[in-house]
């Protein structure tokens, strides 16, 4: 049985078998977690879908993983702050409505 895509074409996209394995595993986890695919897939399994994306050159190893990690953490922090701000505004609106309701009674 022949693996599609072949290991030779995949190794043209990444520097080593180890890197290929790590990249495939990370992308497969992302796909299983609900990430949007970058193309239409022939395969059903997320691990093979990840290999299809790697072969097409649509998923690559980030040249500076520390900077990528920092940017992801910064985005997560910004999202958290935004959610807290929205929650604060909702609480203020509720308090204001209760105050107005108390004046009407």
From TrEMBL:
Q: What is this protein called?
A: DNA-directed RNA polymerase subunit omega
Per the record, the similarity remark reads:
Belongs to the RNA polymerase subunit omega family.
Q: What's one Pfam family the UniProt record gives for this protein?
A: RNA_pol_Rpb6
Coiled-coil region list: 73-103
What is the documented function of this protein? Promotes RNA polymerase assembly. Latches the N- and C-terminal regions of the beta' subunit thereby facilitating its interaction with the beta and alpha subunits.
Query: What EC class is this?
Result: transferase
The terms describing its cellular component in GO are: DNA-directed RNA polymerase complex
Which EC numbers characterise this protein's activity in its record? 2.7.7.6
Catalysed reaction, written as an equation:
RNA(n) + a ribonucleoside 5'-triphosphate = RNA(n+1) + diphosphate
- UniProt entry tagged with the keyword ATP-binding: no
Under the heading PANTHER family, the entry gives:
DNA-DIRECTED RNA POLYMERASE SUBUNIT OMEGA (PTHR34476:SF1)
Coiled coil recorded as keyword: yes
Q: Which domain of life is it from?
A: Bacteria
Keywords on record: Coiled coil, DNA-directed RNA polymerase, Nucleotidyltransferase, Transcription, Transferase
Molecular function (GO) terms for this protein are: DNA-directed RNA polymerase activity
Subunit details for this protein? Answer: The RNAP catalytic core consists of 2 alpha, 1 beta, 1 beta' and 1 omega subunit. When a sigma factor is associated with the core the holoenzyme is formed, which can initiate transcription.
Query: Which species is the source of this protein?
Result: Streptococcus caprae
Q: Which Gene3D superfamilies match?
A: 3.90.940.10
């Amino acid at each position: 049985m022949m693996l599609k895509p072949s290991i030779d074409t995949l190794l043209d996209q990444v520097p080593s078998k180890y890197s290929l394995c790590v990249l495939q595993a990370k992308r497969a986890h992302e796909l299983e977690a609900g990430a949007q695919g970058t193309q239409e897939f022939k395969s059903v399994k997320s691990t093979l879908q990840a290999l299809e994306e790697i072969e097409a050159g649509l998923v690559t190893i980030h040249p500076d993983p520390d900077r990528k990690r920092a940017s992801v953490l910064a985005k997560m922090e910004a999202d958290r702050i935004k959610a807290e701000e929205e929650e604060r505004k909702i609480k203020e609106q509720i308090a204001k409505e209760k105050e107005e309701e108390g004046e009407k009674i």
